[in-house]
Amino acid sequence: MTNTERPIALYGFLRPRPERADEVRRILSSFVEPTRREPGNLQYHLHEHEDGRFFLYEVWRSQEDLDRHNATPSLRAFLENLSTFLEDAPEGYFNTMLSPYPDTEPAPA
């Protein structure tokens, strides 16, 4: 990682269609452990909000790592059919982290 690179955070809410909530929970849950093992994944968390929305929080070492993740067949299949699973468009945010991330910062000299 160069000194100008910072980890990428991706986070947001997904509101499933009521009749598909269990299926969305199962699909999203199935992504957690495989994603955590992907090169460049620093964090991957799934939460279920009290109003039924799912909240995802991801941190990636680089844009390249996130792009590789987004190209995985299982995620592509889910994303290509997203409108059949959700009531409305995802509420998502994508930012470069400003705070240092301990596992990606160069060791002190």
TrEMBL record:
E.C. no: 1.-.-.-
GO molecular function (one): monooxygenase activity
Pfam families, A to Z: ABM (PF03992)
Keywords: Monooxygenase, Oxidoreductase
Annotated SUPFAM superfamilies: Dimeric alpha+beta barrel
ABM domain mapped to chain residues: 8-94
Top-level taxon of origin: Bacteria
Top EC class for this record: oxidoreductase
Protein name (record): Quinol monooxygenase
